[in-house]
Amino acid sequence: MIEKESECKRSDLLLPLRIQIRHLHNFVVLSEEGSLANAAERLHISKPPLGRQIKYMETALGVQLFDRTPSGMVLTEPGRELLAHAYRILDSCRVAEE
């Protein structure tokens, strides 16, 4: 029984690691655009899948990344922190590809 409990805890800790590079890229684009419609257009995808990706990230990380307002999407404090990390991760990926 103890093993099962520790396995559950380990899998809970690994949940955020399931965020993919494309999720980070889409998060960055949305933060730059400030609007789901504009970001989806820039990414050449529709709004529902982009919205689901952001919701998945928020669930996986356990924080709200954006405040949804009538005028658009505004980063929260955790969102701003993630944005700084996302830029560094994406820059590292670009360097690794070169």
Description:
The protein has 98 residues and is mostly helical. The protein contains five helices and two strands; from the N terminus they run ααααββα. It has helices at residues 2-14, 21-33, 36-43, 47-61, 77-97; strands spanning 66-69, 72-75. The protein has a two-stranded antiparallel sheet. Strand 1 (66-69) and strand 2 (72-75) form a beta hairpin. Helix 2 (21-33) crosses helix 3. The chain starts with a helix and ends with a helix. The model is unreliable at 1-11 (pLDDT under 50).
Question: Could you outline the blueprint of secondary structure elements for this entry?
Answer:
Elements: H1 2-14, H2 21-33, H3 36-43, H4 47-61, E1 66-69, E2 72-75, H5 77-97
Antiparallel strand pairs: 1-2
Helix pairs in contact: 2-3, 2-5
Shape: globular
Round the Cα radius of gyration to an integer and report it.
Answer: 15 Å
Strand order of the largest sheet: 1-2
What share of residues is helical? over 70%
Major sheet details:
2 strands, antiparallel
What's the total helix number?
A: 5
β-strand number: 2
Low-confidence spans: 1-11
Mean pLDDT comes to: 86
Content-based structural category:
mainly alpha
